[in-house]
Design brief:
Layout lengths: L14 E5 L3 H12 L2 E6 L2 E5 L6 E5 L7 E9 L2 H10 L3 E9 L2 E7 L4 E7 L1
Parallel strand pairs: 1-4, 5-8
Antiparallel strand pairs: 2-3, 3-4, 6-7, 7-8
Length: 121
Amino acid sequence: MSTTALPWVMLQLNTMAVVVRNDQKAAKWYHDKLGLRVATRFPHWVTVATRGSTVTLHLCPDSPPEKGNTGISFGTKDVAKQEKELRKKGVKITVPTTKADYGTYLMFADPDGNEFYVFED
């Protein structure tokens, strides 16, 4: 084995699974309500992403929807303003804009009960 140090390789997040009842209906919701683009659309593989991002959400219709926090977060410049915009679009806010030691955030839920954080950048 060589003692030459290899350059550091950073892994990049590509896809995160979100359990949904119907991937086609979910893709429409993410597009219409949050402005995400459909990145791929194949049988059993529909992904959505923010514009310019390589990170996608895989909309998985395989099992009953999970309840609660998905562990997925989005970022924004102004959480309070984002909350107003989401409310205008009929998005269910589960935790309104909150200031905590670790940052300002809100949480919202999609129609399948999956919850997401939005943190202020």
